[in-house]
Amino acid sequence: MKKLLLITVLIIGILSCGVPKEIQYPNENLKFENNVVLYKGKKYSGKIKVSVKETNTESELNVKNGRLDGKGFYKGDGYLLEYNIVNSELDGEFIEEFESSRVAIEFKNGKIQKFYDKGKFMIEQYYFDNEGRANGNEEVVETGDIVAYKDGVGERPDWNASYKKYINKEGDLVSEVYKDKILYDMSTFDVYDVDQIEKIIFNKLK
């Protein structure tokens, strides 16, 4: 039994030989294909560091079996993305910044707990209860007008309008606008998951 165990350890050591635990990218042996990180054609596990002065691109990715795992970030072209992945789910703080906007989301086991979005026209800040209902407010930047939400519902009688904001079964943030108690408008914020983050980062690095 001990000999078998020793042989297994030796085989694993031989197979892993030549695969660096940390890679500086670009690297001719490292490829991004179908949302999977490959090193010499095999799924890579380790750390990838990116620093390209010509495009002001910096990134650090932790990878396990070809997929993003743990903390990482991408920064370049006026864009920033930070995340943490645990057991293939977003967990902890997620940040996405553009030149004129910033989104910060707190996840737990892949589900939204808090949401903050500061854009050019609107500032939104909510936390969500166990049923996915928003509590917080949104503010119109130009006028300072505010809609406050409690248990997923916001009211503005002076505008003859009411609002609903909640997380649907797919995990996306839904906003509904009612006028005279009739649904007037509805929009959905497609909240990121691990697959989407990998597509964004891997496509930028190709």
Structure description:
- It is a single chain.
- Residues 4-16 have low confidence and may be disordered.
- This protein has helices at residues 2-16, 194-205; strands spanning 22-25, 30-33, 36-39, 42-43, 46-52, 57-64, 67-68, 70-76, 79-86, 89-90, 92-97, 102-108, 111-118, 122-128, 134-140, 146-150, 153-156, 161-167, 173-179, 182-189.
- It is elongated.
- The longest helix has 15 residues, at 2-16.
- It contains two helices and 20 strands.
- It is mainly beta and 206 residues long.
Task: Reconstruct the topology from this structure.
Blueprint: H1 2-16, E1 22-25, E2 30-33, E3 36-39, E4 42-43, E5 46-52, E6 57-64, E7 67-68, E8 70-76, E9 79-86, E10 89-90, E11 92-97, E12 102-108, E13 111-118, E14 122-128, E15 134-140, E16 146-150, E17 153-156, E18 161-167, E19 173-179, E20 182-189, H2 194-205
Parallel strand pairs: 1-5
Antiparallel strand pairs: 2-3, 3-4, 5-6, 6-7, 6-8, 8-9, 9-10, 9-11, 11-12, 12-13, 13-14, 14-15, 15-16, 16-17, 17-18, 18-19, 19-20
